[in-house]
Design goal:
By secondary structure, this protein is an alpha+beta fold. Helices cover 34% and strands 27% of the residues. The chain has twelve helices and 20 strands. Strands 6-5-14-15-16-13-17-20 form an eight-stranded mixed sheet. Strand 5 and strand 6 form a beta hairpin. The longest helix is centred in the C-terminal third of the chain and has 23 residues.
Length: 408
Amino acid sequence: MRTTVGIIGAGPAGLLLARLLHNAGIDSVVLEARDRAYVERRQRAGILEQGSVDVLRAAGAGGRMDREGLRHDGIELRFARRRHRVDFPALTGGRSVMVYAQTEVCKDLIALQLKEGGPLLFEAEALAVEDVDGDSPRVRFRHEGSEDVLECEYVVGCDGFWGVSRKAVPAELSRVFERTYPFGWLGVLADVAPSHDELVYARHDRGFALLSMRPPATRHHPSKEVASLPIESFVSRLYLQVPEGTDAEEWADEEIWDELERRFETADGWTLARGPITSKSVTPMRSYVHEPMRHGRLFLAGDAAHIVPPTGAKGLNLAVGDVVTFARALTHRQQTGSDELLDAYSETCLRRVWQAERFSYEMTTLLHRAPDATPFDDRIQLARLERLTTSRAAETDLAEGYTGFPLG
């Protein structure tokens, strides 16, 4: 099998890249180790930056997102029993974010790829990436019980942290930067309407808490646009800071609700609605960057190259930035014969990656209480939050970071 671009991984990065290349008239083959059902149900990020929303629309993949996603024009910060809303459009010249789960993005892109794009092979496990230093790199993979080879001009590894792509970069050329945080997020999905119509980020002496939401199952509303439904139609997605290594099953449902209520408490009598918890899990927190993001004709994208703690809602959006950068560079190569943008891929992506790492780190250290925090540390956190809520310049910096850094 032969193609121009071999894409390893059918997450949002690989699928969006295939779509962008298709629209540019460049052929590709996507290899995905899992089956289609798994890809379409694995739960991941749910916040799309303005730039990601714009890219999906321009790629012809934004129709259902616009019908069923939920535009958010701000977030609420809570600390010391106080509430402060950050108004994104007012601070950024009209930018916002969209609540639309990664699962749904993948469903939309898979449907488009199977209908209009090149081959998308599920249960096709990439075994190795070879000869990336030459003009004809290869991906060895196993599909339908036998091994095969995909010959390419370029390989893009969108296969996540545990994939084979990054292993093709020689160890002596790799530089790794990482931080592991001594806490994680206990996340629950609850069958109850969200208690607020925007995301709530709470800093508390007992730890961080986040109130988020998910759109309802569209099958329950076949004749209505989900975006036009009242907030009462959505379900609640909530998170608690917990010690690293926590087992989600150690927490009883009522214990979770009691702790959420304590951490979201305000002086104005706001109340948290409770309901049946339908799932719970713990997400570890880490920051990770692999440099470079390119070696020869191998290009790394998404979690294969970088991971951010979820506080800044940056993971999926960074992946979008990577594949947009690659698609632009290869299109430029096809049109002009110049490798200039391809040669600059790693440097271009890493500028955005490190800004997102910075933003995510700052949001994490602003809102989470470290296990060894001192009274001085607590006062510094509160002073930082006080600055954010009293300085338009500081608030604008947060809003610009949250709604997204320029793509490419």
